## 1
Amino acid sequence: MSAKVLSIIEQMKTLTLWEATELIHQIEDTFGVSASPVHQQIKNHLIETPNLYDVILEAVPKSKKSAIIKIVWNFAGEGLNHARKLVESAPVLIKKDVEYRRAFAFKQQLERLGATVTLHP
């Protein structure tokens, strides 16, 4: 599969049920096709997919620790000392029941700095 298609698939994984439905209708209208069976499968998948995730910081590179503390501080909504303790305690639960898009964006931010983050439904 091409990198472009993989990128589109990854973006589609973040869609809400409403957004996925809109996308399907736009594809049907634009290309004159029917996606009824596919539409139902996507609906079923999105309904079964959990919306809330626990965010777990697994590992932190020492060279990026201070930058990661700042990101965790903003994300967790706690004090700076709390964020520092969390980062120094990895592996550790950063926050429970976070909406998928927010959790995934946080995960990507930290992974760009070399941290390891997992999301658990």
## 2
Amino acid sequence: MSAESNDHRGIDGSSNRLVILRGAEPATRRRRMIFVAIYGMVAAMLTWPLFPRFAGVKPLIFGLPLSFAWVVAALVIMFGALVWLYSTEDHERTKDHGSS
């Protein structure tokens, strides 16, 4: 195998890997890392061993069983994190890329 086969570059020379932090300003990096931490927290909320602790029917929260209210809370947290991340992104930098 040659070294070229391990190069993950597209036709235009861009990387085909998921890039979250490369080339970003420190403030943008910090916001994205906070978002990744929130995403990890929500993922942990919905998997074992955390979810089974809240998988009961009682108590009712706003008329919902505890297990369903737990999932709704995770969705609300994730939606809030996505809105926060979108509202703090620099949209001026990406505006020119869509008009070609």
## 3
Amino acid sequence: MTQMIEAMLDLETCFKHIREIRWADGVCCPRCSNKAISPHGFTTGNVHQRRYKCKSCKISFNDLTNTVMANSRLPICLWLGVYEAIQQNKTQEEIAEQFNLDIKDSRDLIWQLRHGIELQNPYQADW
């Protein structure tokens, strides 16, 4: 495993990495793109996933809102690890073996990440 993947085995590091990439230019509202945002606590059951509230349109959102990872039952660290493996040009077989997945799950994760990048970019940032 690469150092990045090993470092992402804890949730705090995973969400820190997501915030660094997704909010590189500052947090902005996914609905109206306003940057007037206030912290709004954390998601239920996860003290590492931050919530925000837009001061303009008043919606509440979190670090994963409008990403391919939102509402996923898979661990966020798995998503990030597979993304890193894709960046290293690993095959779906290598990814399946590295993350102890069956080949179908590996293929599905890879497709979702690539499809998300094409349509909406999983973190709404340039990787």
## 4
Amino acid sequence: MSASFTGAALPVCGVDVLIVVVQPWILADPHEAQLYVIAFALRFDRTIVLMAQDDRRVPTYYGPAPIVRALGVLPFEIIPWQRMPYQLPRPRAWQLPIPPEPPPYDSRVLSASLGDSDPPPCARTTAS
């Protein structure tokens, strides 16, 4: 079973906004509310507004003031609420970078760099 939440994605004041439904106690604690905003903003890369309803089902919004004001005048029923997946990105497999292939060994290049006068030290033979 994948994790999901109730929310709505829509443009508000020219900004892509994700409204996330939370429990009222989350909005009552500003630090907790900010943690939710940060977590959802990092995951969904958009402006986050939290919404909770009281016992009378009156919505309270938490987020940027201009967006909260705009949402406050919208009829609650026209917001496109839906269950949305909170898919965690798969962690990248850690591995060392693969170095580029070394150029093929060319003895002509090596002997040219040594000056053609002497063969490379590993190619010298000793007479026994």
